[in-house]
Amino acid sequence: MALLVEKTSAGREYKVKDLSQADFGRLEIELAEVEMPGLMSCRAEFGPSQPFAGARISGSLHMTIQTAVLIETLTALGAEVRWCSCNIFSTQDHAAAAIARDSAAVFAWKGETLAEYWWCTERCLDWGPSGGPDLIVDDGGDATLLIHEGVKAEEEFEKTGKLPDPASTDNAEFQIVLGIIRDGLKVDPKKYRRMKERLVGVSEETTTGVKRLYQMQASGALLFPAINVNDSVTKSKFDNLYGCRHSLPDGLMRATDIMIAGKVAVVCGYGDVGKGCAAALKQAGARVIVTEIDPICALQALMEGLPVLTLEDVVSEADIFVTTTGNKDIIMGLEAYPGVKRITIKPQTDRWVFPETNAGIIVLAEGRLMNLGCATGHPSFVMSCSFTNQVIAQLELWKERSTGKYEKKVYVLPKHLDEKVAALHLGKLGAKLTKLTPSQAEYISVPVEGPYKPARYRY
Ligand SMILES: NC(=O)c1ccc[n+]([C@@H]2O[C@H](COP(=O)([O-])OP(=O)(O)OC[C@H]3O[C@@H](n4cnc5c(N)ncnc54)[C@H](O)[C@@H]3O)[C@@H](O)[C@H]2O)c1
């Protein structure tokens, strides 16, 4: 695909696969809205006061139907939005088309190359000569990374005249990042620093991105305030767990239609995602084995009746392998195996065949997030919890932009807001909460209206 920015008749920029899918996207967005009570109540509560009037928000987060409802919540609150996906395989093209036509600038399509992916990320951050976004919604930290690397390179260039050198790394993706920063530097050597000056902050969606932010905070490299949305209880203990419990089998079935019952399945990592994946596989009738490095998570798996072994112990007998560690080098060596052949069955489903035996292994989404690559990610209801946290985090950063409340550090949302996100989702499921009496509240030392748990409580 030629990388040219297109414009709607209203003049809004976009690059998507096929704008004619917009009507289909709109119909599915309307279905999702019914299942996203948290986001819809944000619209009802905050829409009238237009709190984001004048705010530019750039988002790097899977461009799915659920994300479309998030984007249109941000625009309903007054923001102007530019968006890209945070994964080369996760865009739902009809969602991207509907958003591009109706609501925001979008640069995303399913099956981007890595070079296209980073082009999209650049476009998403590019608000023209007057600087970048005011706020970033990030998932995995790539938008944040590009700005940090850009600022670093500009400062180095100003001091020494040295341009970033893609050959300085053997990481193929980072070579692309250095390449686009180098090319950008030649045209505008202050772009990322202007962006940094304007930026109020970022809210980060996932475990891996949050890890990067804390590393930057520790080394003093963090350039703007950040809110860690992942560690809201109503995010990591819901999306990562119940979301994956739904979308892992969905991805497996859509990609392979293989029967899960009776198979031996290995789940590498028994954190929030691993727990959801293991539960789904067990429920589907698989014999599930866990690998872990952490004795606490290993013991949790054992308490659920799941054996904990090493990959070496099980590699010869297991049928299904799921990696959920957020770590590297978990299952390796396939591409390097002499004579191995890759046969693409369909996009994001490849069979790798060994020369000696003609036996094969099916690899989903090239080892990336398979629930988004091979299915449509988590369902709307659980994403409503995650994204309500995102909206609250963005509102908080924007509201406090000139008060100095947030320094160049990583913050989590306060407990009462976490509880509010959960509360917004109870009615839809027909729940009725018990009300504390004042004397009960006093007895357990909590306010009648919450928060009901101390920050240290683990759920
Ligand atoms: N696909 C999705 O929909 C989705 C949703 C949420 C999070 N994520 C991503 O999934 C990953 C895991 O997230 P999480 O919230 O479960 O994190 P987590 O920290 O709760 O869990 C990861 C677990 O992996 C274990 N681990 C690390 N290295 C290991 C190794 N070499 N072998 C075995 N176990 C190992 C850790 O001890 C930990 O228990 C992250 O990259 C996160 O960004 C994906």
UniProtKB/TrEMBL annotation:
InterPro entries: Adenosylhomocyst_ase-like_sf, Adenosylhomocysteinase-like, Ado_hCys_hydrolase_NAD-bd, NAD(P)-bd_dom_sf, S-Ado-L-homoCys_hydrolase_CS. NAD(+) binds at residues 206-208, 271-276, 292, 371, 378. GO terms for cellular component: cytosol. GO terms for molecular function: adenosylhomocysteinase activity. Binds 1 NAD(+) per subunit. Signal peptide: none annotated. Keywords: NAD, One-carbon metabolism. It catalyses: S-adenosyl-L-homocysteine + H2O = L-homocysteine + adenosine. Residues 240-377 form the S-adenosyl-L-homocysteine hydrolase NAD binding domain. Substrate binds at residues 64, 139, 205, 235, 239. Its cofactor is NAD(+). Belongs to the adenosylhomocysteinase family. Adenosylhomocysteine is a competitive inhibitor of S-adenosyl-L-methionine-dependent methyl transferase reactions; therefore adenosylhomocysteinase may play a key role in the control of methylations via regulation of the intracellular concentration of adenosylhomocysteine. This is Adenosylhomocysteinase. It comes from Ensete ventricosum. The lineage of its organism: Eukaryota, Viridiplantae, Streptophyta, Embryophyta, Tracheophyta.
